[in-house]
């Protein structure tokens, strides 16, 4: 092979393109054998479970001398799960040997999950040249509309490997029987093309597109004209930058053809000692089990059955006097805690209502001074009460709903809020203040948050309520126009304040508007959280989602961007305190 394909061509990204039965798998195997014989590191991503034969001689009876570790599949040295992608990626990136990663037993979602973690870790930790063979590459870099968010992320990771990996030591060999299904961003990065027999017109057109982008169109006509009639094993090898254009015939690989029907007769391979990495993968497996609702339910049921079978122990009743004494202590403690919490809640809500009615309804410097005095008195009163309280009591009060009086104060505030009017004269260079429909959507979103007590919502909160992406140029332009018009200001980085009373909105209207921001799946999660804090696993189980699914994560991410939910600690979800107050 050395005289037909120079080593320099294998130091770039290679594409082996040919229909089923054209000999592309054999061609890829000969390249892998050549690279491993030269001491290169090779990692084969095998979604079809046919690469294990490279460890055996051509007749399948002896060792071939090539000893890549096999992860996954029926002949695995170490079994793997979709959650093991990052661990395997780091092992490959930082080890000197070669490996086969057999993904045949994983479904499409499992393949995507594994490959996302694998590719990300490989990019982050790879050390030195590594030849990555991506069999059935169109699975990992599909062209056209992707079916799931995970598939879209897998596509992005694959394109990153191909477009950015060269500088990190990665040399990628993509193999596909469907060039038309391989994403353009990956196909266009091929520097050495090995084109074998192709019959479908759209697959031949994919070759033509590559030629138009990277090679000589006139020379390409000879190739495309012959693709449908190439014999098995024949291929055009074209590396335009190396001035290589040859028609060659690949000899049979020197190792066992485990992709043919006769492969079933091959002996099982003995395991390589991989104790260290196996222990690490077992820990990941245990973590996955601990967060799987179905497995947890099964374990609970098992423990309940075990408990029922051992329920022969005698129950010794406590003396009646001890029970009555314990009840009395509990009653007194509860009464005391309830009195303190109620006292704090009453004072804080009454003071808050008073401040809202005085401070925000007053006009003029003198009256604002009165409001400041009232605020100071109320703050000292609340502070004095809080000194008597345990931290836990204050936390409980913060999560209590507002009284009807406090809600009415917010309604008064939304009706009588003092705002700066729009200037009578337009800003220099502006024809007037006829706000567009898009600008009004943004203003209405800010007005909604203001009526709910958020005078300075974040740009993310405003964008979410108005139906925009906070990072989009369109949203940034709308904010800029509104600021120029004097309708809003930026009181702090990332926050927005409404200056013009353009859209009066009552408290009830704002609450209804906030609730309407959520679609049915998001509202399902919201309703499940109303009673109190839940773990992500519990929330997923109550709403019929998988805690590890991309859909569930996206729903939570949207609710968090709107400041509706928060993560008080790892793995926990809770509604924000202000949400409880308006319900």
TrEMBL record:
<protein>
    <recommendedName>
        <fullName>AAA+ ATPase domain-containing protein</fullName>
    </recommendedName>
</protein>
<dbReference type="InterPro" id="IPR008571">
    <property type="entry name" value="HerA-like"/>
</dbReference>
<dbReference type="InterPro" id="IPR003593">
    <property type="entry name" value="AAA+_ATPase"/>
</dbReference>
<feature type="domain" description="AAA+ ATPase">
    <location>
        <begin position="10"/>
        <end position="200"/>
    </location>
</feature>
<dbReference type="InterPro" id="IPR027417">
    <property type="entry name" value="P-loop_NTPase"/>
</dbReference>
<dbReference type="Pfam" id="PF01935">
    <property type="entry name" value="DUF87"/>
</dbReference>
<dbReference type="InterPro" id="IPR002789">
    <property type="entry name" value="HerA_central"/>
</dbReference>
């Amino acid at each position: 092979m050395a005289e037909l394909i120079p080593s320099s061509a294998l130091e770039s990204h290679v594409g082996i393109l040919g229909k089923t039965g054209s000999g592309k798998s054999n061609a890829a195997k000969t390249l892998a054998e050549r690279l491993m014989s030269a001491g290169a590191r090779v990692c084969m991503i095998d979604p079809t479970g046919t690469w294990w034969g490279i460890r055996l001689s051509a007749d399948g009876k002896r060792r071939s001398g090539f000893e890549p570790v096999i992860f996954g599949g029926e002949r695995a040295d170490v079994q793997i799960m979709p959650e093991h992608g990052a661990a395997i990626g780091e092992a490959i990136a930082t080890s000197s040997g070669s490996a086969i990663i057999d993904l045949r037993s994983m479904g499409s979602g499992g393949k995507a999950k594994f490959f996302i973690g694998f590719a990300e870790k490989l990019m982050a930790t790879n050390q030195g040249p590594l030849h990555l063979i991506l069999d059935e590459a169109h699975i990992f870099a599909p062209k056209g509309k992707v079916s799931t968010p995970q598939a879209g992320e897998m596509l992005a990771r694959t394109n990153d490997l191909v477009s950015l990996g060269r500088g990190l030591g990665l040399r990628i060999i993509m193999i596909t029987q469907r060039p038309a299904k391989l994403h353009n961003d990956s196909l266009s990065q091929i520097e050495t093309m090995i084109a074998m027999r192709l019959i479908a017109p759209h697959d031949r057109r994919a070759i033509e597109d590559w030629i138009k982008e990277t090679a000589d169109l006139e020379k390409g006509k000879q190739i495309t004209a012959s693709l449908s009639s190439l014999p098995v094993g024949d291929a055009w090898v074209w590396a335009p930058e190396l001035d290589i254009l040859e028609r060659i015939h690949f000899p049979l690989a020197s190792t066992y053809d485990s992709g043919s029907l006769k492969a079933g007769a091959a002996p099982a391979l003995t395991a390589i000692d991989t104790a260290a990495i196996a222990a690490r993968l077992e820990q990941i497996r245990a973590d996955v089990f601990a967060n799987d609702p179905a497995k947890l339910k099964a374990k609970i049921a098992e423990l309940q059955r075990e408990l029922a079978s051992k329920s022969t122990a005698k129950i010794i009743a406590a003396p009646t006097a001890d029970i009555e004494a314990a009840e009395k202590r509990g009653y007194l403690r509860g009464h005391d805690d309830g009195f303190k919490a109620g006292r704090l809640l009453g004072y804080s809500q009454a003071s808050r209502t008073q401040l809202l009615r005085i401070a925000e309804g007053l006009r003029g410097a003198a009256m604002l001074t009165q409001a400041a005095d009232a605020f100071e008195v109320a703050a000292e009163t609340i502070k004095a009460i809080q000194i008597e309280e345990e931290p836990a009591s204050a936390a409980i009060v913060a999560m209590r709903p507002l009284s009807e009086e406090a809600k009415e104060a917010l309604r008064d505030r939304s009706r009588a809020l003092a705002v700066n009017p729009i200037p009578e004269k337009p800003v220099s260079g502006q024809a007037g203040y006829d706000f567009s429909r898009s600008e009004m959507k943004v203003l209405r979103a800010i007005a909604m948050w203001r009526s709910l007590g958020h005078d300075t919502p974040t740009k993310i909160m405003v964008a979410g309520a108005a139906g925009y992406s906070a990072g989009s140029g369109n949203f940034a332009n709308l904010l800029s126009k509104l600021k120029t018009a004097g309708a809003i200001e930026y009181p702090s980085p990332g926050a927005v304040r409404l200056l013009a009373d353009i859209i009066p909105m009552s408290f009830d209207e704002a609450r209804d508007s906030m609730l309407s921001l959520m679609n049915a799946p998001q509202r399902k999660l919201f309703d499940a959280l109303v009673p109190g804090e839940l773990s992500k696993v519990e929330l997923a189980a109550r709403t019929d989602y998988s805690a590890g699914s991309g859909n569930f994560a996206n729903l939570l991410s949207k609710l968090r961007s709107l400041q509706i939910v928060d993560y008080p600690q790892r793995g926990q979800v809770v509604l924000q305190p202000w949400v409880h107050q308006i319900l």
